[in-house]
Amino acid sequence: MDILTSFTRKSQALNQESLQPIVKKLQSSIYSILLQETDPRTVSPALVRSAAFDLSYLLIRHRQWHHASLLPELAIDYLNSEYFIPHTLSAQLVETALDVLHSYTPRELDWSSADYEEEFLEHLIICSLISLDEDSLEIDLGFGRNVLNLLKSALALENESPDVFQFAPEITQHLNAIMQRIFGELEESPANMDQYRMKNVLQRDISTTKNKLKTSYLVYLGKILTACWPEGKTAAELEQLGEGELFSADLRLLARNGLIYEEPGARRNQSSVYRLSNKGYELTCMQFAFSRWQDLGGELHLAQLPSPYQATVLQILAKESAPRLQALIEKEGQHLSPVALRFVIEHLKRHEGEKGLLEIFSNLLHNQAHAWIRVEICQALPLSNGESLAAAILDQLLNEDPSPMVRSAARAALQRQRRLANQPQASSL
Predict the structure, then answer these.
(1) Among 79-93, 287-301, 309-323, 358-372, which range has the highest average pLDDT?
(2) Which residue has the higher pLDDT, 356 or 111?
């Protein structure tokens, strides 16, 4: 795991102004108990500070599920397995911390313990499905490797796996049942993933009750979001999709959580419009790809699509029609966003398309691709084939590119290329 990335992300999550009172109180209680109950000769002050920081992040990150009985069990296991804090002391720390937090997150009266448990497990699954990789997931959840192994075990239904002996087999079975439900919904309509992603975001909104985030409400919010693309919509136009007097609150909810933003009108008497933010695009990309884009016969061009839509459309084409994907890349490769180009690079590398990849790179540079695209090109090089062409591309970027960022990336790529070239010589000595 990248320690710097982990610390930065957790610090950003804890350093929100609205959370400062609760975070300070939480960390103080954890820190004081650890100092009182541990021997400084065996547990250093640095370890105490680190454990207080990580446990604070874990509990704040999952504060919507403080009343799920499984949460303290996973938190205790984390302290025990990652910091070797004895189980009894770990339990004391977690219980004390939760006592502090319960005053800030009271139990919702219309939710049972089973409801909290079900939603908490679903939350873990959705986080794992939308995560980029295991390291990112471990940082996001804050639980460590044991919970990741639990999720893997539930996916494979390996109840006898020794990796998750810390947890009762019923947990694995329960997780698997929820996974099967989610996978069934996604098989019925892949666009349902947008609803789960939106729910994952809105669950963190402290002014929104869990009971409100039902499927029908999430579908309705999704309609508001998709209506905002591509030209944007005024509040009056969006209100036609609304639900009476609650519409203004729904609009504020989407804006408060960064899914839409208000753009003032160009003229004084012109109404402002609501547009999708980049996060809003991310939460509607499946709906676009499996509904709107297909309804239009796939006629929209890459230059007309925001980055998340580009990447999703390319992923679908990669599964459904490799020739169509190849034709689209050859025709419109110069309009790829950095995220979409990253997918194309990985796809062509897996399918032995490195020659075509170098041609795409050359076309992108010929068409004066953006600096971030040029950085992606550098980071993808060198390739196992086409060494001379790759070297020519990198030499040009290193010596002629006006961007210091691109020149630095090209220099690093050339160093990688030299190391690869020297490897056979080193192995023959």
Answers:
(1) 79-93
(2) 111
H or E element in which residue 87 lies: helix 87-102
The full DSSP string for 382-415 is: --SS-HHHHHHHHHHHHHH-S-HHHHHHHHHHHH
pLDDT score of 25: 94
**What DSSP line would sit under 252-272, residue for residue?**
HHHHHTTSEEEE--SSTTSPP
Residue scoring higher pLDDT (94 or 244): 94
| Residue 275 DSSP code | E
Q: Which two tokens stand for residue 210?
A: 């869990």
Distances (CA, A) of 119 to 129, 227, 265, 327: 15, 29, 41, 43
Residue type, 102: H
Residue 386: the pLDDT is 56
**Token output for 52:** 């207080």
Q: What share of the chain is helix, strand, coil (3-state, %, to 5)?
A: 70, 0, 25
Vertex 288: Cα angle to 283 and 291 (nearest 5): 130
| Mean pLDDT of all residues in 405-427 | 80
- Distance, in Å, from the CA atom of 197 to the CA atom of 282, rounded to the nearest integer, reads 9
Better-scored residue on pLDDT, 59 or 366: 59
* Cβ within 8 Å of residue 94, ≥6 positions away: 55, 59, 72, 75, 76, 79
Span 298-347, pLDDT tens digits: 667 888 899 999 999 898 888 888 788 888 887 887 788 898 988 888 88
Element (H, E) at 276: strand 273-276
Cα separation of the two ends of the chain: 34
Q: Which residues contact 257 (CB under 8 A, 6 or more apart)?
A: 201, 202, 204, 205, 279
In sequence order, which residues have a C-beta less than 8 Å from that of residue 321 and are 6 or more positions away?
Answer: none
d(CA 381, CA 374): 11
